[in-house]
UniProtKB/TrEMBL annotation:
GO cellular component, as recorded: SCF ubiquitin ligase complex
A single GO BP: SCF-dependent proteasomal ubiquitin-dependent protein catabolic process
Keyword Signal: yes
Record's signal peptide: 1-25
InterPro entries per UniProt: Leu-rich_rpt (IPR001611), LRR_dom_sf (IPR032675)
Organism: Corallococcus exiguus
Transmembrane spans: none
The keyword Signal belongs to this UniProt entry's keyword annotation: yes
Pfam families: LRR_6
Name the record gives this protein: Leucine-rich repeat domain-containing protein
PANTHER family: PARTNER OF PAIRED, ISOFORM B, PARTNER OF PAIRED, ISOFORM B-RELATED
Keywords: Signal
UniProt superkingdom: Bacteria
Length: 614
């Protein structure tokens, strides 16, 4: 009984234990995997090419911005500007570009090959950045752009030469109280526009060359007490302007091609700091030079195409720091050159198109700093060249049109720094070039209007670093043209007026640096024109005076910036091909059958500047 009762209790306990026991926790289903965060790809930052402006006014590429992965740093000290490497087409692109300019504190902006953005986008770029200087020469910049910048009060420099600015647009400059540099050369500006500049008294540099301004409109100059640089060349200004100029700070004055006379030069005595003076193509003669002799700080003087004679050169002997002297196309015969013997700082001397002879060269032997000497089209002959042997610093020498024998060029052998040599229009033969020896420093050679032909090309190989070759109106054919491909450093090749049909162009396509090619007046035919498509880096091309028509235009390389089609057979039918040249900025259609309407379309829709003069 006990055992049965125990069994029952045991069974009851087990049941109780089972009843009190907790059920195992259910296994939760796997938690759903969260989708990965979307990958955000930042748009590429806009790139710019930065340039440093050198003391001589040229620019040198420095590098790209943004600069790799490094944190933005302001550019080093100096004068800088940058160019976008892609077109600026939207507000977002303009703002992004402005941010890069701001981060690197880039002071200047240009647009080069990419073309000028619309006015509103340009305003976004300038107002959102650190830019204080705009380098817009020879672009489609016009009054609308100036109006968009009317609130850009920080601007200090506007380089607007060769643009579409007119008198009406100059009113916008009144909102730029810090403007110090203004270039308006070769624009439609006249006296009417200058009235609007009367409130600007901060100008340090003003250039109005090639405009319609007159003495009557230049009253604003009297208020420009800070003026240091003034260019009025190729205008109708006269002696009255000289009389009204504030001269205390003036350092550069260019009056070439004006109505200034000897009498007006008396005002130069009020300009003691003048260091550069341009009087070329004026009525100035010997008596006027008496006023120039007192400018003790003058280091550059241009008197080309004036009435100066040997007698007047005595006044230049009083210019102790003169470095640059241009006497081209004056009435000098030679005896007066002795007055230049004491100008020991001279570096540049141009005596081309005068009547000086070999005797005059002896007076130059003490000028040991000469770097650039022009003797072209003078009475100097090959027998006078030994007098040049002492000019060890000479880098550029012009001997065009002289009576030279092949052997006479041996006198140039000591000139080891010679990098530019003009032998055009001489009677030399290939033996003359052999007299020069192997010249690694020679960069620029002119053999135009000589007997240069295919047989000479082998001699040119000794000038392996040649960058520029002019062989205009020679006897070069396609055979020799193709052999020039061995000059791997060539950047510019001008072979206009030669019996070239185009088959020699194919080897030249491999030249890695060729950007300028002049084929004007050659026998280039449609088959030869097809070869042009292979010049992918070409930015300057002349086909002027060839027999080419509309069919040739479809083969033009898309890299072109400048194109000469003067006196060709192109018509309106060929213009669509030019619309597909994205970088084209300058075009010569003179003496063609292209209509005014078609030309206007190129200007209006593509920003092309049509050339009206060579």
């Amino acid at each position: 009984m006990v055992n049965g009762r125990w069994s029952w209790l045991r069974l009851a306990g087990l049941l109780l234990a089972v009843g009190c026991a907790s059920l195992p926790a259910p296994i939760p289903p796997p938690r759903p995997t969260a989708p990965p965060d979307p990958v955000v790809v930042a748009p590429p930052r806009p790139s710019l090419q930065a340039y440093r402006i050198l003391p001589d006014g040229t620019s040198s590429p420095w590098g790209l911005l943004p600069a790799g992965g490094a944190a933005p740093q302001p550019l080093p000290d100096g004068d800088w500007y940058a160019e976008p490497l892609e077109p600026v087409s939207t507000p977002a692109e303009a703002q992004a570009l402005a941010a890069v300019l701001r981060e690197y504190r880039v002071p200047g902006l240009s647009f080069g090959e990419q073309g000028l953005p619309a006015p509103a986008l340009l305003a976004l770029l300038v107002e959102g950045s650190s830019v204080v200087s705009l380098h817009l020469s020879d672009t489609a910049f016009g009054d609308e752009h100036l109006a968009a910048l009317r609130n850009a009060a920080r601007l200090k420099a506007l380089h607007l030469d060769g643009t579409r600015v007119t008198d009406a647009g100059l009113a916008s400059l009144q909102g730029m109280p810090h403007l110090a540099i203004l270039r308006l050369d070769a624009t439609a500006v006249s006296d009417r526009g200058l009235v609007l500049l009367a409130s600007l008294t901060t100008l340090r540099r003003l250039s109005l060359s090639g405009t319609s301004v007159s003495p009557r409109g230049l009253g604003l100059l009297a208020a420009q007490t800070e003026l240091e640089w003034l260019d009025l060349s190729d205008t109708t200004v006269d002696d009255t302007v000289l009389a009204s100029l504030p001269g205390d700070r003036l350092r550069t004055l260019v009056l070439s091609g004006t109505h200034v006379t000897n009498a007006g030069l008396g005002a130069l005595r009020r300009m003691p700091a003048l260091s550069s003076l341009g009087l070329a193509r004026t009525a100035v003669s010997d008596s006027g030079l008496a006023h120039i002799g007192g400018l003790r700080m003058l280091d550059a003087l241009h008197l080309g195409s004036t009435g100066v004679t040997d007698a007047g050169l005595v006044h230049l002997a009083r210019l102790p720091v003169l470095r640059v002297l241009v006497l081209s196309k004056t009435r000098i015969r030679g005896p007066g050159v002795r007055h230049l013997a004491g100008l020991t700082r001279l570096e540049v001397l141009h005596l081309d198109d005068t009547l000086i002879g070999n005797a005059a060269l002896r007076h130059l032997q003490g000028l040991h700093h000469l770097r650039d000497l022009e003797l072209s089209r003078t009475a100097v002959t090959g027998s006078g060249l030994p007098a040049l042997a002492s000019h060890q610093e000479l880098e550029s020498l012009g001997l065009s049109g002289l009576a030279l024998a092949d052997a006479s060029l041996a006198s140039l052998e000591p000139l080891e720094r010679l990098s530019r040599l003009d032998l055009s229009a001489t009677r030399i033969g290939p033996e003359a070039l052999k007299q020069l020896g192997s010249r690694m420093v020679l960069r620029h050679l002119d053999l135009s209007r000589t007997d240069f032909n295919d047989g000479w090309v082998a001699t040119l190989r000794t000038f392996s670093r040649l960058q520029s070759l002019r062989a205009i109106r020679t006897l070069l054919t396609d055979l020799g043209l193709g052999q020039l491909s061995e000059l791997r450093e060539l950047e510019s090749l001008q072979v206009s007026g030669n019996p070239i049909s185009g088959s020699g162009l194919v080897p030249l396509q491999k030249l890695p640096h060729l950007v300028k090619l002049d084929l004007g007046g050659t026998w280039l035919d449609d088959n030869g024109a097809r070869m042009l498509a292979g010049f992918e880096k070409l930015s300057w091309l002349s086909l002027a005076g060839t027999r080419l028509g509309d069919e040739a235009l479809v083969h033009l390389p898309g890299s072109l910036l400048t194109l000469y089609l003067l006196r060709t057979k192109v018509t309106d039918a060929g213009m669509p091909a030019l619309h597909h040249l994205p970088l084209l900025r300058e075009l010569d259609l003179r003496e063609t059958a292209v209509s005014e309407a078609a030309r206007a379309t190129l200007v209006r829709e593509h920003g092309v500047r049509l050339m009206s003069s060579p």
